[in-house]
Amino acid sequence: MIHLRKALLLTAIVALGACSTNAGRFGAGGPGAGGSLGAGGLGSISDPTSVAYFQATVGDRVLFEVDQATLTSTAQATLSEQALFLMSNGEYTAIIEGHADERGTREYNLALGARRASAVQDYLVSQGVAPNRLRTVTYGKERPLEVCSDEACYSQNRRGVTVLTAGLGS
Amino acid sequence: MTKLRNFLIVVLAGFAAMAQAQQGPLRIEITEGVIEPLPFAVSSFVAETPGASTYAGTITRVIGQNLAGTGLFREIPRDAFISRVTNFDSPVQYADWKAINAQALITGSVNVASDGRLIVKFRLFDVFSEAPLGEGLQFVGEPDGWRRMAHKVSDQVYSRITGEAGYFDSRVVFVSETGPKNDRRKRLAVMDYDGANIQFLTDASSIVLAPRFSPRGDRVLYTSYETGFPQVFELDVATVQRRQLDVQTEAMTFAPRYAPDGLTVVYSLAQRGNTDIYALNLRNGQRTRLTSAPSIETAPSFSPDGTQIVFESDRSGSQQLYVMSARGGEPRRISFGPGRYGTPVWSPRGDLIAFTKQNEGRFHIGVMRTDGSEERLLTASFLDEGPTWSPNGRVIMFTRETAGATGAPALFSVDISGRNLRRVPIDGAGSDPAWSPLLP
């Protein structure tokens, strides 16, 4: 288990919309729980070194087109900001989650999620983030964020999420 | 398998000679697309000892359900019976069964022996030929194995009338699901083929996916997130002990399946975003790479003779089915229809491949010959996926998931003719069924 920085633990929690928070989402067993910061560890949104700032202001996720793992220009812009954040906040490592919508078979979607997470990782590395600070995990269609069965939800579920973990560096 | 018991099968004396002389016309040829279900009667099994009556009632009921559930047979309701069989060894009153158009008649008895074991006997009669069909048999086992004895009787009846092996005495491993769609809890579970006797194999602390039985039914391969990342595990069904296969820190593994000899596992390994198929020798731990392409290669399935592997790949630009040698090498594409094809599973008879097809926003379960010809779609819905074959290659079970925020998966089965679509009755939601071989 990765220990949280004391500073983060002591910082007041900031209310974030449920949809924009992924820390702790996966409960026991997932890297989102084992390595991420639980409630109370997000820090202040006004602190530009905090997880809360990363999630809300930098943007912790990018979205993908149907059955694609290529990064849109919007996604590239977000990831460039993520890279800047990671390079100026060297105490974080990150697990990059790749997700798919429900319109695919389970194992194919695992492979697709792996491809998406890897695309995010490769872009961050290309922007200067050390590869040993990043790991990828695929969730396929196992953890949708939105639960309706139309494109409005699917488009939000086809995502790559950069989940910060504190400490350890590499 | 914790419930597994050895059943003593004894041919009842006196019927062997008759059975050999018998060449009755009672036969269902199930190669045709549509058939008229064969009407049969199960006379209430005779309870021959005081403690046997509860078992006699439930065994009679399960046999009726098994046979009627195939769609090949139609059970004649008991209140239509003219004859009552009160003595297992009394001559059959064929006229009484002809009068209600019962073409097949099953009679039986149940004893609780002095050692506490259950003795179940049965006979099958071809009513219109006025002759027994095959020999009388008896099964001996522990009382809590009564359902398996009912399944064994059903398998005998099925195979004598159809000429094909049965599938009732088998189990299904699947993923039991609870909780909301965005926080689903998943546990591995096993059940009888008909949804009874559910036992859990894992707790709900980690996501588990897509289990598969070993060729002998004693082990299960599956994918678990218990390390935080998808990894392939093997679990011993009897002890529920599990171990991670091919431990690696920088790769994710999933989609594991056994070779027919149970000694090799093929699976997908995703590394740097690229998913390929590997084989792992369970004896020496040696790993062999079978595909080497920048595309997605996953969902492998062995041919029953172990020489070939069918899998899915998007190397053409979309998900399609390919066949390659079990040692790897250049694959041959076999799916060419419109849409995408995934989750291929080779039938136990070797003649067909079942698959999931996505086309124009719908999901289908289908079958094709192993060269890709004669594709037939058996189902259509918002989301059908993940076919698994009954041990005799006659029935396919799969996951059907409903749409929307309250959507949930359920287990369904369908005959390979496309008829007899049924929901498998289990408590709660379930997905990713995988059928065991016929139990010994």
Write a concise synopsis of the structure shown.
The complex is a heterodimer of chains A (170) and B (440). Chain A has 170 residues and is an alpha+beta fold.
Verbal overview:
The complex is a heterodimer of chains A (170) and B (440). The longest helix of chain A is centred in the last third of the chain and has 21 residues. Chain A has a four-stranded mixed beta sheet. In chain A, helix 4 packs across helix 5. Helix content of chain A is 36%, strand content 15%. In chain A, helix 5 links the parallel strand 2 and strand 3. Chain A has one domain: OmpA-like domain (60s Ribosomal Protein L30, Chain: A), CATH 3.30.1330.60. With 170 residues, chain A is of the alpha+beta class. Chain A starts with 5 loop residues before the first helix and ends with a strand. In chain B, strands 1, 2, 3, 4, 5, 6, 7 and 8 form an eight-stranded mixed beta sheet that branches. A four-stranded antiparallel beta sheet of chain B has the order 11-10-9-32, with no helix packed on it. In chain B, strands 12-13-14-15 form a four-stranded antiparallel beta sheet, with no helix packed on it. Chain B folds into two domains: 155 residues, Rossmann fold (3-Layer(aba) Sandwich), CATH 3.40.50; 264 residues, TolB, C-terminal domain (Neuraminidase), CATH 2.120.10.30. Chain B has 440 residues and is mainly beta. Chain B starts with 7 loop residues before the first strand and ends in a 5-residue tail after the last strand. Chain B is globular, with a radius of gyration of 23 Å. In chain B, helix 2 crosses helix 4. Chain B has four helices and 32 strands. The longest helix of chain B is centred in the N-terminal third of the chain and has 17 residues. At the A-B interface, helix 5 and strand 3 of A face strand 16 of B.
